Amino acid sequence: MLLWLVSYTAILHLGNSQASTKLTNLTMGDNPSQGSFAGQNNPVIVLVHGAWLTPIQYRELISLLSLSGYRTVIQQLPSVNSKNPDAQTVGTDTIFVRNNLLLPEIRAGREVVLLMHSYGGFPGPVAANGLSRQELSNQGKPGGIIGMIMLSAFVVLEGQSLLDKLIGKVYSAWILQFDTTGQLGVADPPFRFYNDLPALEADAWSKEVGLQSRTSFESPAGQPAWADDSIYANRRVYLQTTLDNAIPLAGQKNFIANSGVMWDVQAFEAGHCSFISQPKAITQAVVQAVKTFQGLDTAA
């Protein structure tokens, strides 16, 4: 039976697109924490999704990671499709990631690899503070984060907002601003997110693109855990997407150059949602990164 451990938020609000229809054909499996999962001793992948997106979009990647022996934990961030968008900030997303995704796994003694896509690079690294395996081991506790993977993600320093990272610190023309609701939309999602997919498939996935809280783009991030070289040296991977029309390759390279630390950089000829257009390649890269992180622990 195909194992699916997407949270309930991943299957809420299914639309009529082909993408959503396919999701309903998948079967929920057993919970690996109950001992039925073949890869139950492998690290858990905690996936922090990008702006405007929901867990539905990551279903193929999650499925392939499951088949490779890795359980993935993902929940929809509060800043997406919120009924109270003005209250959703990078900070509220950070608290959500820490309390709902990271802590339940780590408190259960599990090792975690943090995988962040796009906007996920804002709340994810801040939520990780103090939760590395090294720090918890020093406290006599099991589990913890053993590495981080950025997938065409923002790499930001403390105090920076997403708006700060945009050219001229102004919204690009393709980011639609809805002042009355405090939300942001996407103009032409097939071009921005799915430019490397067939037209019909790109149109289908575009129907799943939601609305993003404006305040989540204008509020500052906290101190990122990846910046601590004493903990995360050789444990940072960046997966670039060279055909990206949302975060162009030049921007991704600039993030890395200005981070002040070293990253293991790999490039994929793919658009912003590479996990849809090239799920096998991204799965292989994630699995290899996890094994590398584990190898560092074995060598030590």
Automatic annotation (TrEMBL):
Signal peptide annotation: 1-19
Keywords: Signal
Annotated AB hydrolase-1 domain residues: 45-283
Pfam families associated with the record: Abhydrolase_6
Source taxon at top rank: Eukaryota
InterPro entries: AB_hydrolase_1 (IPR000073), AB_hydrolase_fold (IPR029058), Sec-Metab_Biosynth_Hydrolase (IPR052897)
Keyword Lyase: no
UniProt KW Lipid metabolism keyword: no
UniProt name for this protein: AB hydrolase-1 domain-containing protein
Organism: Imshaugia aleurites
Organism ancestry: Eukaryota, Fungi, Dikarya, Ascomycota, Pezizomycotina
